[in-house]
Specification:
The complex is a heterodimer.
Chain A (H helix, E strand, L loop, with lengths): L6 H4 L25 H15 L6 E5 L7 H4 L3 E4 L5 H11 L4 E7 H7 L1 H9 L5 E6 L2 E2 L5 E2 L18 H4 L5 H6 L4 E8 L3 H19 L4 E7 L3 H4 L3 H15 L3 E5 L2 E2 L2
Parallel strand pairs in A: 1-2, 1-3, 3-4, 4-8, 7-8
Antiparallel strand pairs in A: 5-6, 7-9, 9-10
Chain B lengths: L2 E6 H11 L4 E4 L7 H9 L8 E4 L3 H13 L4 E5 L1 H16 L4 E7 L15 H5 L10 E3 L4 H18 L2 E7 H5 L1 E6 L8 H7 L15 E2 L6 H21 L3 E4 L6 E4 L2 H16 L4 E6 L1 E3 L3 H5 L7 E6 L5 H8 L5 E6 L8 H13 L2
Parallel strand pairs in B: 2-3, 2-4, 4-5, 5-7, 6-7, 11-12, 11-14, 14-15
Antiparallel strand pairs in B: 1-8, 6-13, 10-12
Classes of the chains: A alpha/beta, B alpha/beta.
The structure holds thiamine diphosphate and iron/sulfur cluster (SF4).
Iron/sulfur cluster binds next to helix 10 of chain A.
Amino acid sequence: MSDIVTKEQIRRPENLVYSKTKLLTDKALSYCPGCGHGTAHRILMEVIEELNAQEITIGIAPVGCSVLAYEFMNIDMQQAAHGRAPALATAVKRLMPEKIVFTYQGDGDLAAIGTAETIHACNRGENITIIFINNGIYGMTGGQMAPTTLPNMKASTCPYGRDVTTMGNPLRMTELVAQLPGVHFVTRQAVHTPSAVRKAKKALRKAFDLQKENKGLTFVEIVSNCNSGWKMTPVQSNKWMEENMFPFYPLGDIKVDGQLVK
Amino acid sequence: MKELKLMKGNEAVAEAAIRAGCDGYFGYPITPQSEIMEYLMYQDPQKTTGMVVLQAESEVAAINMVYGGASCGKKVMTSSSSPGISLKQEGISYIAGAELPCLIVNIVRGGPGLGTIQPSQSDYFQSTKGGGHGDYRLIVLAPSSVQEMADFAGLGFDLAFKYRNPVLILGDGVIGQMMEKVELDEFKPRWTEEEIRRNTPWSTMGKLNNRERNIITSLDLDSHKQEKHVAHLRDKYLEIEKNEVRYEEFQCEDAEYLIVAYGSSARISQKAVELARAKGIKVGLLRPITLFPFPKKPLLNYVGKIKGILTVEMSLGQMIEDVKLAVECKVKVEHFGRFGGIIPTPDEVVVALEKQIIGG
Ligand SMILES: Cc1ncc(C[n+]2csc(CCOP(=O)(O)OP(=O)(O)O)c2C)c(N)n1
Ligand code: SF4
């Protein structure tokens, strides 16, 4: 019996190599197992913790699967109407320029119903950070076509695949907003592998550092999976994402220091 | 020191908002209320009181900016006219659901649709019955003078914060555009961050270590909790109905007939009362100042004392429904209105009174 290691024996300070950031609550995530939202939440809150900015950060949650982000993020948060998060964030930052303000939005929220609010907040160069989770589909409402759905990709409202001649082409919002002078830093990341997570976290850190320096709008897209909506296992969905989403939505910086990359 | 000025209604509400310590205005141009944002931009209060003034990309964005600002415990406002107010309804519903204070000004023009840019009172239902989706009420103030446009900015913010509820100033093109003498309050300083944290412990200004995080939301996926929340809203609205009814009576003491009218219609009706009295008709005017809460009891008190009520509105007849409910249909109530941007004359009102109420 004595060679069975107990929990208490393992949980010694010298054995602890990682702990959950205090900026995530203990509430169990409402996301499907394997979904990228949870990882994105974690690195976002780790960055706010590293910046020691819990007391001055205000987050805006969207309508979408991450509508309950405020249940998990241990900071003051507001829950916007579908697509309107950048409008809320605009006011919060204008009224309290010394705070750190971010929105966290899905692709339906940001690139369909909220297109106007997104583009105009970007164009005004609001000094906020927009975090854009692009999973190519409407997750929350059950897998309908999003503006970002790939050509021929199936979704519940395009069961035969997205026909671009009648349903339009996928919208690359990130490239679009990168064109606007008010936008200072634009990058596209992913969170499906440890190295991608590290890079994405660095990108978030950079975005918030730039916000603190009042550089203008910073925009971080995270290409993510929706294994439920795509009707795949988490592993299959990550593979499918690499093979199909990344060629259309290539990872990397798009605008740095106010200059388009390439 | 109070200050006396000659101003348009639209300018008066803007100036009074600055003086009331307003933190932010977010709007989108539309006739007949564009002077509100123009006046604010010209005054540039960011340089004096620190008030933010921002032209949004749409009314939808503007009301959601108000939502974000109100969530921080800031005194924020927007203004628009009918088509723009329709666009704001989703945001207003969220603000009411999340129980946030804010000030909304609607300088009504004739509808439906793009309608006309001329004055109207056809947004009464939308203003007093909710307007957007869900069970909620706004506190609705109906100014009938430029002075009241100014006074209701401060009063509006006070009521909004007292009840954590959006307040709507329901004016119309006449009130917004006409010039009158107005006495302006002294400048009240804007709240500091410490004051906001003290006055609005629910606000999202950043989670300090000594408290739990604050969340502003209108969502509750648990229907039992949502039912409780809506019941709480109902109790709040009942409280508002108990405490905040405001109205004015004119020549009502010996009245055999009553005109009920608000806003510019009340101004016209006041003249009509004078004309009718000169002809020997004993008529008085009751002017609701709050449309929600509606002066139900004061109206009910007239049952048994008067022979009939004429409501005068620049619409097909919307407030008349509240008047009939208030008097429990125990008195004859008739509507007279012009609409589509036409303003009734006092003479027309007297004729309507004689035909529909006295002769009818
Ligand atoms: C005004 C309005 N229209 C529609 C909806 C329904 N709705 C909720 S979430 C959603 C789509 C969310 O998709 P996305 O933004 O891509 O986020 P995801 O769930 O995929 O993370 C829709 C259409 C709503 N809540 N409000
Ligand atoms: S539906 Fe999709 S986006 Fe939503 S939690 Fe599940 S996997 Fe994630």
